[in-house]
Write a structure and sequence with these properties.
The structure holds 2 protein chains of 2 kinds.
Chain A (H helix, E strand, L loop, with lengths): L14 H30 L4 H22 L9 H18 L1 E3 L2 E6 L4 E2 L1 H19 L7 H21 L3 H17 L4 H21 L1 H11 L10 H13 L11 H4 L9 H33 L4 H26 L16 H19 L4
Antiparallel strand pairs in A: 1-2, 2-3
Helix pairs in contact in A: 1-2, 1-11, 2-13, 3-4, 3-5, 4-5, 4-6, 4-12, 4-13, 5-6, 6-7, 6-12, 7-8, 9-11, 11-12, 12-13
Chain B lengths: L2 H12 L5 H28 L1 H12 L4 E2 L6 E2 L5 E13 L7 H12 L3 H8 L6 E4 L4 H9 L5 E10 L7 H4 L11 H5 L1 H4 L4 E2 L2 E3 L5 E3 L2 H5 L3 H4 L3 E4 L3 H18 L3 E7 L6 E7 L18 H4 L8 H11 L8 E3 L4 E4 L2 E4 L6 E3 H7 L2 H11 L1 H10 L26 H8 L8 H12 L3 E3 L4 E5 L5 E4 L4 E4 L3 H17 L13 E10 L6 E14 L6 E8 L7 H20 L5 H4 L12 H11 L2 E5 L3 E6 L11 E7 L5
Helix pairs in contact in B: 4-5, 12-21, 14-16, 14-17, 14-20, 15-20, 16-18
Classes of the chains: A mainly alpha, B alpha+beta.
């Protein structure tokens, strides 16, 4: 039975990917406990409420990881079109039956727990692009087949996500689409205009929504209005400053108590900065860099182009989202609702990240067929 | 078919050619993003923390932090100078307040606060608002016993200075947030303030802060949040004596302000440091800003004739003169360039000893010329003039001592008798200590040690020799010259029965910034000295500004020196010369502690009867009366020693 997990001859599980994923997940468990205990005590009368749920998601994530590991990754290609349809269905469903939180419908509530379709859709998009770019490789230079078809297919997802609205995830999707078409050798002269148009559209989206505009101006100078739109940024800055080089010590954050909302989800990196200091910040960043570099090595050594694109897409999705989340926390980017993969509390994010690691490991141990 | 295509197809078949450089580009972009995040984090966490801290501090001193439990300040004998007293702070949970109008009315009456302001707070939609921090204890108790719903009480540490105005300017004080803003409280705020004490507030469902559990607040571990304690070299009882005598002397002479500082010459420890008018740090806002200065270290003034001591010491050390070298004092009038120097009493030829004894300006100017400006300047620098001493208190002045290149003939002369130069009293006692202790310039200090809440010594000051200024011989000769001043010269009023005293008087005019010259009738009267001469216990400087009844340093500051020194010697248990012991004169015991009295009665063999506790308020027989054989001295003590 365990034979299905055995690496092919001359191939092996990438130890760097495993260690970095374990490290980041462990930091996540610690920080979720540290950041959420007061909040969960208040809301659920149990300081371990979020920790328990996080552990449950972690278990689900590991099961999902083993599941994707048990199948040869080349078999995934058979699932591409059904998966794409399921993605569309979920993204449409969330617009209809999704939980309305602060004017946005991003979650589907299943009673015991809820999940975020856009988190899953991102990876379906990666799977689709990896398959399609490999399949259409001969015609990738053509405008219609190599370029427009991918824009259409991915565009469906992006538009649906923007309707929720989930600006952060849409941005991530566009960035991954761009990166994958780039390595899929779609012509640069098509990609550059696409990049420019995307940026223009993003700006338009910002300008048409007042709250986004406020976030942007607050981002440009958060200190101008420290109690208004710049609130989260300022609180995050303070958390970092309080941490200093060595941090205040695990569990000793004062920012998480009152001043930094969403401390266990979107702004968990700030609390890492406060409790574990600059050293902790650098260690977490190094964790992501190790994961990125080792996974790209797996990608370049994959037995086929599909494996190469798939691993590339998965790890870019993780690393890009991590980088953007951190950039928001330190004030380089305006606020948007993105989680920090592996670390933030948030079931869907943890499960999908671990599944992605399963895919990367799968490719790393697979031989040529 | 283009060749490029065929390469692609080949690569697909053999799977060797991956988009390597394109992957590297994307990887580089993402790593660049991580690098930018790291740099920004470095800036926030290490390089530019201050800005965020300012905001953080404001926030933390808002509703969600308790006042800090500051460290205690002790004197050298462990007497408390600055302590914390738990006082109740009153808060409200407006959601639980049933009748906001009625409650606000009651609160404003009891606490004498504006009703509208209270009403606004009580009627707010928050779940935690402060009503009054560190409330009046009686009002708080009444409110607590009347059991109004929605009101709560938390004990917070209030900074209290149990000795009132005693060395108020040295200790300093804290603001409403218990942050030190003057004196030791300010300078050592980082050590004293301790850890931030968080009030455990949580968010309710709507994101409002609520107080979670009062018991948690009571349980805050004092040791974990307390600041560090500071032990001073100051003896609060000597400080009492100094302040009382200084006040008495200045009031008697109709002076405006004054200061005194007492140092232990062998170590550089400051035993007392007083600035009059006094300031009570418990209620500092009632005292004018200009009285809050720690004058002995802050106020640089022209020393006048006290400077001649250091001139003579330098000249003797430099072997230019000896105590018997003679100078023609020109019968009280000497022309230097366009200026004329005068002596108060015209004299002919004087020795160096006599020049100091009579305080001849002309004699001093000639000694200065004999040494030359460079040499004299070098010695003044070695004595520590024109430099901060580094005593470890805020607001120290360096005084003014121009470089010798800027000295003309007139400047050399005036600086020789203490004009055209300014010094602090701290510099004077530090320099004089070098004469008293055999030639060593000691670094003065006022912090003995810093102790953490667990009782470990974090930092301890030890006596530190900065440099050797003069030889033992010079020191010995200077002691005799200065003793002669008190016995036969201008300092006679500083004599103490039973003890040898060395000193020098000083009378300087006060510069008038408006005219650029001097005030015609405003003087700074000073006396510097030490006692006993053979083995000095204390070195002291007393300075009185603008006395009206008398103006001469010997008449104004001399008696204050005597009054202080006499009592301090008694307090220190110094034994007077033998011939006086037989007479047994009753000393002035006022302000002494029981311990002092008992040691005195034992060593002197005098019987005492002590009533009450605290400090001596009344005594029989009166000071100066003879103590007869078998007589019992009755001494009455009172708790609050009234200055």
């Amino acid at each position: 039975m365990l034979k299905i997990f055995e690496p092919a001859k001359g191939r092996n599980y990438d130890i760097g990917v495993i260690l970095s994923a374990v490290f980041l997940t462990a930091v996540g468990v610690l920080m979720v406990y540290s950041t959420s205990s007061v909040y969960s005590m208040e809301n659920f009368g149990d300081p371990n409420y979020y920790l328990k749920r996080h552990a449950m998601y972690l278990a689900l994530g590991l099961i999902s990881m083993l599941a994707v590991l048990s199948i040869d990754y080349r078999v995934y290609r058979k699932l591409v079109y059904p998966a794409y349809i399921v993605g569309i269905a979920l993204l449409v469903a969330v617009l209809i039956i999704g939980k309305d939180v602060g004017g946005a419908r991003r979650w589907i509530d299943l009673g015991a727990f809820s999940f975020q379709p856009s988190e899953i859709a991102k990876y379906i998009l990666v799977l689709y692009l990896a398959h399609s770019l490999t399949k259409k490789r001969d015609k990738v230079d053509s405008f219609v087949v190599g370029f427009a078809s991918h824009i259409m297919v991915a565009g469906m997802y992006v538009i649906l996500v923007l309707l929720e609205p989930d600006f952060g995830t849409a941005t991530t999707m566009i960035a991954v689409l761009f990166a994958m078409m780039f390595i899929g050798e779609v012509r640069i002269r098509y990609l550059v205009p696409l990049g420019l148009i995307s940026v223009a559209l993003l700006c338009l989206a910002v300008l048409t929504k007042g709250y986004r505009m406020r976030r942007i101006t607050a981002y440009l100078d958060p200190w101008q209005d420290p109690l208004g739109a710049g609130y989260q940024s300022i609180q995050s800055f303070i958390a970092f400053a309080l941490g200093g080089v060595y941090g205040t010590g695990l569990g000793d954050s004062s920012q998480k108590l009152f001043f930094l909302p969403q401390a266990h989800t979107d702004f968990i990196f700030s609390i890492i900065g406060e409790e574990l200091g600059f050293i902790g910040v650098v260690l977490v960043i190094l964790g992501f860099i190790v994961l990125l570099v080792r996974s790209l090595r797996v990608s370049l050594r994959a037995p086929d182009l599909f494996g190469c694109y798939l691993v590339f897409g998965c790890v870019v999705l993780i690393a890009l989202q991590a980088g953007m989340n951190m950039a928001v926390a330190v004030g380089l980017f305006p606020t948007k609702g993105l989680t920090l993969p592996f670390i933030s509390y948030g079931g869907t994010s943890l499960i999908t990240s671990l599944t992605a690691v399963g895919v990367i490991l799968n490719v790393s141990r697979s031989g040529i067929k | 078919m283009k060749p490029k295509r065929s390469v692609k197809r080949m690569s697909l078949a053999r799977d060797l050619d991956k988009p390597r450089w394109r992957v590297f580009i994307i990887a580089a972009l993402i790593i660049a993003l991580f690098a930018m995040v790291s740099v920004k984090a470095l800036e926030l966490q290490v390089l530019d923390r201050e800005r965020a801290f300012k905001i953080a501090r404001k926030q933390h001193h808002g509703t969600s932090t308790l006042l800090p439990r500051r460290g205690t300040i002790y004197d050298r004998n462990g007497r408390e100078l600055a302590i914390n007293v738990d006082v109740k702070s009153i808060y409200a949970n407006p959601k639980k307040v049933k009748d906001p109008n009625q409650t606000a009315k009651l609160l404003s009456e009891k606490l004498s606060l504006p009703e509208k302001k209270i009403q606004k707070r009580v009627a707010s939609n928050k779940s935690f608002v402060w009503i009054k921090r560190l409330a009046d204890s009686k009002a708080a108790e009444e409110l607590q016993s009347s059991d109004i719903e929605g009101l709560g009480f938390i004990p917070e540490p209030k900074r209290v200075y149990p000795n009132g105005s005693l060395m108020g300017q040295v200790i300093g004080f804290t603001d409403v947030d218990s942050i030190g803003i003057e004196g030791i409280e300010y300078h050592y705020d980082g050590l004293l303030i301790g850890k931030t004490r968080k009030l455990t507030l949580k968010r309710d469902a709507r994101g409002h802060k609520i107080l979670s559990d009062l018991s948690e607040i009571h349980d805050i571990d004092k040791d974990k949040t307390s600041g560090q304690d500071i032990v001073l070299t100051i003896d609060s009882q000597i400080q009492h004596i100094v302040e009382r005598q200084l006040k008495e002397g200045i009031e008697e002479m109709g002076g405006e302000k004054g200061m005194a500082i007492v140092m232990k010459p062998e170590t550089g420890e400051i035993l007392a440091m007083a600035s009059y008018p006094f300031v009570d740090p418990n209620d500092f806002s009632k005292f004018p800003q200009q009285n809050r200065r720690n004058l002995p270290i802050w106020y640089a003034h022209e020393p006048g004739s006290t400077m001649k001591v250091f001139l003579a010491a330098s000249a003797i050390e430099d072997k230019k003169v000896n105590p018997n070298s003679k100078f023609n004092c020109e019968n009280g009038r000497r022309k230097i360039g366009s200026a004329v120097i005068k002596d108060i009493k015209p004299r002919g030829t004087l020795t160096v000893t006599e020049i100091v004894q009579y305080s001849s300006n002309i004699g001093a100017s000639k000694i200065g010329e004999l040494m030359g400006r460079d040499k004299y300047y070098t010695y003044l620098k070695k004595f520590g003039f024109g430099e901060k001493t580094g005593i470890g208190l805020p607001g120290e002045s360096r005084g003014q001592l121009a470089g010798p290149r800027k000295w003309g003939a007139i400047e050399l002369a005036t600086i020789s008798f203490g004009q055209g130069v300014s010094v602090t009293s701290l510099q004077l006692v530090t320099a004089l200590s070098a004469i008293a202790n055999g030639g060593y310039l000691m670094k003065p200090y006022v912090i003995e040690k810093i102790v953490d809440p667990e009782g470990n010594i974090v930092e301890e000051n030890k006596p530190e020799v900065i440099t050797r200024v003069i030889s033992y011989d010079t020191s010995h000769q200077m002691k005799q010259i200065m003793q002669n001043v008190v016995e036969n010269g201008t300092g006679k009023k500083a004599q103490i029965p039973g003890f040898s005293v060395a000193g020098k008087t000083g009378t300087a005019q006060i510069p008038d910034p408006k005219s650029g010259g001097y005030h015609p009738d405003r003087y700074i009267a000073s006396f510097i000295g030490f006692t006993p001469v053979e083995d000095p216990e204390i070195v002291m400087a007393v300075v009185v500004e603008a006395p009206r009844k008398k103006t001469h340093g010997g008449s104004v500051a001399g008696p204050i020196f005597k009054q202080i020194a006499e009592k301090v010697l008694f307090h220190m248990g110094a034994s007077p010369n033998k011939e006086l012991v037989g007479m047994k004169v009753m000393p002035d015991l006022s302000g002494m502690s029981v311990r002092d009295i008992l040691i005195w009665s034992e060593t002197e063999g005098v019987k005492v009867e002590v009533k009450g506790s605290g400090y001596v308020a009344n005594q029989k027989p009166e000071p100066g009366d003879l103590i007869k054989e078998g007589m019992v001295c009755s001494i009455e003590l009172k708790q609050k020693y009234d200055l």
